[in-house]
Inverse folding.
C-alpha cells in the first residue's frame, strides 16, 4: 500500500501538472501573441552611451513584472535533466513566456501613458519559492522588464 | 472608408517569435525518464555485483561481527524464545545436515522466534531464525529438515552477505543522488522503488541452488527425498486459497517466492541424478509446537498435527 501510494501520488501529480500546465501555457501564448500584435507599432529601442537620444517632451520609467510558476511536470522533467545534462527545454518556454509577458505589461503601461517609443529596455530574472537548503530548484520565476517611455 | 475595411481583412503583421526549442514535452520526458532509469539501474546493478563479490571476501570473523550488529534489528527481545528444548532439537537437526567433510565457516546460532507468521530465515553471521508458527505447520521431520537445509544452503553460498552488500550499494547510491528522501517527490521515488524490488529477495538462481543444496543433504541424511517437499506443496496450494493461512503465509512468500516450477525443477534434478524421492516419513517429536515440547493445549487441528 505504501509502495502503491509512492507511485500513484506522483503519477497523479505528474498528469495533473502536464494537463493543466500545457493548457495554461497554450492559453498564455495565445494572449501574448494577440497583445504583441496590437502593440507592434510602439518600438522598443536601445541607444548607446554616445548616441543622441530622440527628442522628447516627457520621459518616464515603466516597469513590467510577472511571476510564473512551473508545474509539477516541468519540475520533474527538469530534475531528470539535471541528472543527465543538456538543454532544459521545458524551462525555455517558461522563461520565454515570462520575458514576453513582462515586456507586454511594461509596454501596456507605457502606451496607456501615451509613449511613442520605449528606450533602453532591460530585463531581469529572479527565482521565487525554491526549496530551502540552497537548492537551485526554482519554484517559480520572476521576470522584470523596465525601460524609459517617451512622448 | 475603403482602407478601413481593407485593413480589417489585411493579414495581421507577423509577430517575431522567441527561439524556444521545438519539442513535444512528453517525448522529451519519456526520453529522459528512460535514460535515467536505464543508466541508474545499470550502474547500480554493476555496483551491486561488485559489492556481492566484495561481501564474499570478508573474513568469517568480520561476518560474525556484522551478524551481531544486525541481530537486534532482526530479532526483538520479546519475540526471542530462550531455554527451550525445541532449540536443542532444531540445532541437532541442523547440525546433522551438512556432510562430514563439509566445512561451515561459522558456528550456526539458532533463534526460535515467537511469531504468528510462518517464516524461516538465515542472516549474516550464521543466525538461523525459526518462527513458532512454522513449527505448527510442518508435519514431518523431513519437511523441517528441508527448510533448514534450504537456509543452510543460502548460508553456504554466502547469499545473506551478498544480499547485504547489494542493499548497502543501493542505500548508499540513492543517498548519494539524494533520492528516496522524503523531500523529493515523484520520479525519484519510482527509481528507488525499482532498487527496493531487486533487493527484496534472493535471486531465483540463488533460491534454486539453496533448494538443491537442501535436497541433497536430505537425501544424504534420510536416504530419500520423500515427504520433504510436502510442506512447500501445501504452501503452494494454500496460497491459492482464501483463508487465514494465506495472510500468515504472505511473509514467507515474500522472502521465499515459491512456485510449482521450483518443485518441478527439484524433481527433474532428482530424477536425473537418480535420487530416490519416495520413502519413509520421519515423525517430528511430539508437541513440537508446544513450549519445551511438553503437552500443551493447541487449537484442535494444529494439535492433531503436533501429535504426528
Amino acid at each position: 500500500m505504501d509502495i502503491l501510494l509512492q507511485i500513484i501520488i506522483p503519477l497523479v501529480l505528474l498528469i495533473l501538472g502536464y494537463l493543466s500546465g500545457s493548457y495554461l501555457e497554450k492559453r498564455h501564448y495565445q494572449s501574448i501573441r494577440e497583445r504583441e500584435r496590437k502593440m507592434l507599432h510602439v518600438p522598443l529601442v536601445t541607444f548607446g552611451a554616445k548616441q543622441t537620444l530622440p527628442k522628447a517632451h516627457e520621459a518616464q520609467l515603466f516597469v513590467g513584472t510577472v511571476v510564473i510558476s512551473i508545474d509539477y511536470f516541468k519540475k520533474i522533467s527538469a530534475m531528470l535533466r539535471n541528472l543527465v545534462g543538456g538543454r532544459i527545454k521545458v524551462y525555455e518556454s517558461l522563461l520565454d513566456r515570462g520575458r514576453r509577458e513582462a515586456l507586454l505589461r511594461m509596454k501596456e503601461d507605457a502606451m496607456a501613458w501615451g509613449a511613442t517609443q520605449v528606450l533602453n529596455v532591460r530585463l531581469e530574472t529572479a527565482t521565487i519559492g525554491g526549496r530551502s537548503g540552497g537548492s537551485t530548484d526554482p519554484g517559480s520565476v520572476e521576470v522584470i522588464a523596465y525601460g524609459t517611455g517617451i512622448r | 472608408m475603403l482602407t478601413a475595411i481593407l485593413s480589417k481583412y489585411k493579414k495581421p503583421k507577423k509577430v517575431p517569435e522567441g527561439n524556444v526549442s521545438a519539442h513535444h514535452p512528453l517525448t522529451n520526458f519519456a526520453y529522459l525518464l528512460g535514460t535515467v532509469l536505464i543508466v541508474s539501474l545499470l550502474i547500480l546493478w554493476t555496483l551491486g555485483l561488485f559489492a556481492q563479490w566484495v561481501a564474499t571476501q570478508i573474513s568469517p570473523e568480520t561476518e560474525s561481527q556484522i551478524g551481531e550488529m544486525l541481530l537486534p534489528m532482526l530479532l526483538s527481545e520479546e519475540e526471542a524464545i530462550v531455554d527451550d528444548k525445541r532449540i536443542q532439537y532444531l540445532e541437532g537437526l541442523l547440525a546433522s545436515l551438512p556432510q562430514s567433510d563439509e566445512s561451515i565457516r561459522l558456528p550456526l546460532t539458532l533463534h526460535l522466534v515467537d511469531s504468528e507468521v510462518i517464516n524461516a530465515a538465515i542472516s549474516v553471521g550464521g543466525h538461523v531464525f525459526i518462527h513458532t508458527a512454522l513449527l505448527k505447520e510442518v508435519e514431518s521431520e523431513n519437511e523441517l529438515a528441508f527448510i533448514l537445509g534450504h537456509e543452510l544452503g543460502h548460508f553456504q553460498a554466502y547469499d545473506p552477505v551478498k544480499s547485504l552488500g547489494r542493499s548497502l550499494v543501493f542505500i548508499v547510491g540513492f543517498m548519494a543522488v539524494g533520492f528516496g528522501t522524503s523531500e523529493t517527490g515523484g520520479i525519484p521515488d519510482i527509481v528507488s522503488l525499482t532498487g527496493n524490488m531487486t533487493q527484496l529477495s534472493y535471486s531465483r538462481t540463488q533460491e534454486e541452488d539453496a533448494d538443491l543444496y537442501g535436497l541433497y543433504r536430505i537425501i544424504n541424511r534420510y536416504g530419500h527425498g520423500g515427504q520433504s517437499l510436502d510442506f512447500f506443496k501445501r504452501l503452494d496450494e494454500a496460497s491459492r486459497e482464501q483463508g487465514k493461512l494465506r495472510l500468515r503465509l504472505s511473509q514467507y512468500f515474500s522472502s521465499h517466492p515459491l512456485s510449482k516450477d521450483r518443485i518441478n525443477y527439484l524433481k527433474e534434478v532428482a530424477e536425473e541424478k537418480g535420487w530416490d524421492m519416495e520413502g519413509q516419513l520421519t515423525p517430528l517429536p511430539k508437541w513440537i509446537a508446544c513450549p519445551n515440547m511438553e503437552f500443551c493445549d493447541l487449537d484442535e487441528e494444529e494439535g492433531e498435527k503436533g501429535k504426528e
